[in-house]
Design goal:
It is a single chain. This protein is an alpha+beta fold. It has a single domain, classed as Ribosomal Protein S5, domain 2, CATH 3.30.230.10. It has three helices and four strands. It has a four-stranded mixed sheet with strand order 1-2-4-3, with helices on both faces. β1 and β2 form a beta hairpin. The longest helix has 18 residues. The chain is globular and about 35 Å long. The two termini are about 25 Å apart.
């Protein structure tokens, strides 16, 4: 689980990334990111009700994706929003890791 300093919670920060951030796409994941000055990565994960109907399943998917981000991307100095469009963890993980390699 992320510590509080690794989370993006404020609406102002999210809209700033959404408006001014760079975008990477795959079939199952979209990443909007923007460089930051904190010295570590900060993240938010979004999955809609269209993708998964039940909240407990959405939360499980988000938890697994956060674990991947914590292990692979926390050293990158970016603020990142991850939008998930599938409920299949293996596909999400594969696409997410591929997109994380593209972030410089």
């Amino acid at each position: 689980m992320f510590s509080q300093k690794h989370r993006i919670k404020k609406e102002k920060e999210i809209t700033e990334i959404f408006k001014n951030g760079k975008k990477l796409n795959s079939k199952t994941v979209t990443i909007k990111y923007k460089k930051n000055d904190h010295g570590f990565g900060r993240f938010a994960v979004v999955i809609s009700k269209k993708t998964e109907k039940y909240a407990y399943k959405r939360n499980t998917i988000k938890r697994k994706i956060r674990h991947i981000l914590k292990n692979k991307a926390i050293k990158k100095e970016v603020d990142m929003l991850c939008y998930l469009y599938s409920n299949e963890i293996k596909k999400l993980e594969k696409d997410l890791l591929y997109l994380l390699l593209k972030i410089k």
